Amino acid sequence: MPELKRKPYEKLLEPLQEELARMARWVSVTGHRLVVVFEGRDTAGKGGAISAISERLNPRQCNTIALPKPSEDERSEWYFQRYVAHLPAAGHISLFDRSWYNRAGVEKVMGFATKEQVDAFLVAAPQFERMLVNDGIILLKYWLSCDQEEQEKRFAERTEDPLKRWKLSPIDQAAREKYDEYTKAREAMLKATHTEWAPWTLVNFNDQRIGRLTLIRDLLDRLPDTECKEPKLDWPKLKGKPAKERFTVLKPIPDYPVAEGDSG
């Protein structure tokens, strides 16, 4: 399948983002709590998918959680503790860019967790998620899939683009040699944690734009009818002419130099 170009992608994304805005209003009005977990290999497209969902939503309502590696104190806590702190309050949305499933993926494959810790996690995770769902949280879990050939292209793009190089880490380099080990770890994770109350959904992200559209459509379809009547907004006209900015103490800095013809 040929790659979806930017302009048709943006045209297809716009109505989905309008639906997402209505969904966010529904969450706010009804007091629901929505948690969406994004997991997948490095470069799979988790950040781009989260941005496509959140970029038109109120950042005070929709939070993205991308936690760094745990501190020494956090390593001594109950494993789920630092994630619980980021669960949403009523009317809010939490998007996890990686989540508690780090233990079943990168920590297992890279040797950051013992076999006993991983085994205990695979038993505890479904119980933890049952508690969340029983408490009324709407929990959606997505795995973004990506073939190694496509992963290598994206790694190469990051090495060549100074604006994306920050995304590379020593873990990424090591992970390139462990593609099959990550596959085995993922399959064990799915077998243990794909439950009736918190199922996994796998989305093909070899084409990231199509993947985002697919994921967003599925997310919206998994929620009940989120149509909420929008209150009528009374926005009267100004009583006089629009005022201009006036400064007496300080002045704005000079405008950025724009070449003639670049301003439209």
From TrEMBL:
The residues that cross the membrane are none
Q: Using the record, list the residue span of the signal peptide; answer none if the entry has no such feature.
A: none
Q: What exactly does this protein do? A: Uses inorganic polyphosphate (polyP) as a donor to convert GDP to GTP or ADP to ATP.
* Family matches, as InterPro entries: P-loop_NTPase (IPR027417), Polyphosphate_phosphotransfera (IPR016898), PPK2-related (IPR022488), PPK2_PA0141 (IPR022486)
How is this protein named in the record? ADP/GDP-polyphosphate phosphotransferase
Q: Which UniProt keywords apply?
A: Kinase, Transferase
Which residues belong to any copy of the Polyphosphate kinase-2-related domain? 4-229
Q: Which GO terms describe its molecular function?
A: polyphosphate kinase activity
Family statement drawn from the similarity comment of this UniProt entry:
Belongs to the polyphosphate kinase 2 (PPK2) family. Class I subfamily.
Which Enzyme Commission numbers does its entry carry? 2.7.4.-
Subunit structure comment from the entry: Homotetramer.
